[in-house]
Design brief:
single chain, 7 helices, mainly alpha
């Protein structure tokens, strides 16, 4: 059911693959695993998308798409999942990452005041970059593993329920 909905929402892979602005990628987009919805491809896409989404990086969609192409997992899902970090969720996610990194590094809590300026950003970044990066890596790794395992398990459970449903239908006929 979800597979059909997702296929309906995404453009066809022929349309994306042959798009004029993506021709510089050549035949890289011709790999069918980038577009198929199978257990391996979707689980890998979740791992890639969740990992990149929780890292404080610019151009997350591009990075996620390039990694998906390199390891041959579902490209649209991996690129779409990076939107977990959006302007509404970035603050709580990165604050949590900073807190985790600060606790792992055993650093004291630092007072915080916000000012929208380049000087504030560079000064604060010098203070928080280590715990923020470490916390982001921890969260990203845990989320990627959890997403991968969850998709694999849920996919398997769905297949088993469909098999049981078919068996019950055949028993009722016989």
């Amino acid at each position: 059911m979800a597979k059909k909905i997702i296929k309906r929402l995404f453009p066809s892979y022929h349309r994306v693959r042959d798009h004029q602005s993506l021709r510089f990628l050549g035949t890289l987009l011709h790999d069918p695993n980038l577009w198929h919805m199978n257990r391996r491809s979707v689980a890998g896409a979740f791992a890639v998308g969740l990992f990149i989404a929780l890292l404080p990086l610019p151009f997350q969609m591009i990075i996620s798409a390039l990694i998906a192409i390199m390891i041959r997992v579902n490209l649209p899902i991996s690129a779409l999942l990076v939107w977990i970090t959006n302007p509404l969720t970035m603050g709580p996610i990165y604050y949590t990452a900073y807190t985790i990194g600060r606790k792992v590094l055993d650093l004291p809590r630092v007072g915080f005041s916000f000012e929208l300026s380049l000087q504030w950003f560079t000064q604060e970044l010098l203070i928080i970059w280590k715990p923020l990066l470490l916390g982001s890596l921890i969260m990203a790794t845990v989320a990627a593993i959890a997403g991968y395992v969850a998709v694999r398990v849920l996919w398997r459970l769905h297949i088993l329920s469909r098999i049981n449903w078919r068996r019950r239908g055949k028993k009722a006929e016989g």
